[in-house]
Amino acid sequence: MEILRYPENKDRIKEIAKKRADFIDEDKLKSVQEIVNRVKVRGDEALFEYTRKFDRVNLKKLRVSEKEIEEAYQSVDKGFLQDLKQAINNIGDYHRKQLKESWFSHDRKGNIMGQLINPVQRVGAYVPGGRAPYPSSVIMTVIPARVAGVDEVVVVTPPDKEGKVNSYTLVATREAGADEIYRVGGAQAVAALTYGTESIKPVEKIVGPGNIYVTLAKKMVSGIVGIDMLAGPSEIMILADETAEPEYIAADLLSQAEHDPLAAPVFVTPDWKLVEEVISHLENQMKDQPRRETMAKSWENQGLIIIVEDIKTGLEMVNLFGPEHFELMVEDPFKYLPDIKNAGAIFLGKYSPEPLGDYVAGPNHVLPTGGTARFSSPLSVDDFIKKSSLIFYSREGFNEVAGGAISLAQKEGFNGHASSVSIRLGR
């Protein structure tokens, strides 16, 4: 963990921010390329082979059956199902507000311009699994696709050592509205969704978080299919003033540190006393956590505290890092909202901890990492739609603009373009 002052350590802080964006492991690209190519050529046979190799299980079939889903409902507790449905309602309500409609405009000559909006037809949602269930990743990827009107939503997720998909994940897929579920993960799942196999039809777009192998595979197939983003290790930045509760700050930093030793917890404040109190709470809270080793490694190797002159200066740090998650714990957080330019998800006030966004608030938790919030956005309904422009000209309208089109085409040396227009003028 580093403690740096800004602007005294400006160069070092910039170096750390830049390093967060460079998470792609080029050394693993070769093995991922081999996996993708083998699945492309050998289909299901390669999927079974890689599942034996990586997940240590011999599968007889890839698709999860209706019977397995029904059995899953018998093994989850009713409280979970009730909480899941509430989360689904909140996520659905939020994403429905993102919907856009096709539009058309016309002028006095009868010319019509417009934009047609259509959903992607078939989408693949990658859900991490194997060692732990991630029903939240199911609902965060499947629901916006459904809201957008996607015809077919497919979920892929790694099996456990018995070749099964976790019951909580299965129930979430059914409740969220997925059409098909396959027990396959890793780069091989991404390849299967891209090229198709005997069991899995190809999709048009792949979304959802995964490990470095999944991310590299998504990078590799991008352009053949659409992808949402290249997600790196999780990160949280908290900017707080003297009114903030140090134990809340510590707990929220650890909430992301428990993800991965590479997760980056960053704390920014002008108050040195608050720093001391937060560090004390971090040490105490870590002791009783099941993932304390992961938390400790994350905090030790990726943790950062930045001491700034004031909250306004702290917001410069936020916009420099473009954090995946940003919590603003100050007396009047809405006062500073116009100054926040780069952040994936923004949490305002002491009672808006990041985990609410992960599970129940409504906004999506698939977020840009590594500073990419400078130019990209959380997963949304927009990721599941396509926009087509529409042009209709009347004869009168065509005659008015034809000369300009001919002139520009000729200036660029495209006489065929010019002829396409001039022939309609009888030239």
Automatic annotation (TrEMBL):
Pathway: Amino-acid biosynthesis; L-histidine biosynthesis; L-histidine from 5-phospho-alpha-D-ribose 1-diphosphate: step 9/9. GO terms for biological process: L-histidine biosynthetic process. Binds 1 zinc ion per subunit. Substrate binds at residues 234, 256, 259, 325, 358, 412, 417. Zn(2+) binds at residues 256, 259, 358, 417. InterPro entries: Ald_DH/histidinol_DH, Histidinol_DH_CS, Histidinol_DH_monofunct, Hstdl_DH. Keywords: Amino-acid biosynthesis, Histidine biosynthesis, Metal-binding, NAD, Oxidoreductase, Zinc. GO terms for cellular component: cytosol. Its cofactor is Zn(2+). The active site is at residues 324-325. It is an enzyme of class 1 (oxidoreductase). NAD(+) binds at residues 126, 188, 211. Belongs to the histidinol dehydrogenase family. Catalyzes the sequential NAD-dependent oxidations of L-histidinol to L-histidinaldehyde and then to L-histidine. This is Histidinol dehydrogenase. It comes from Halothermothrix orenii (strain H 168 / OCM 544 / DSM 9562). The gene is hisD.
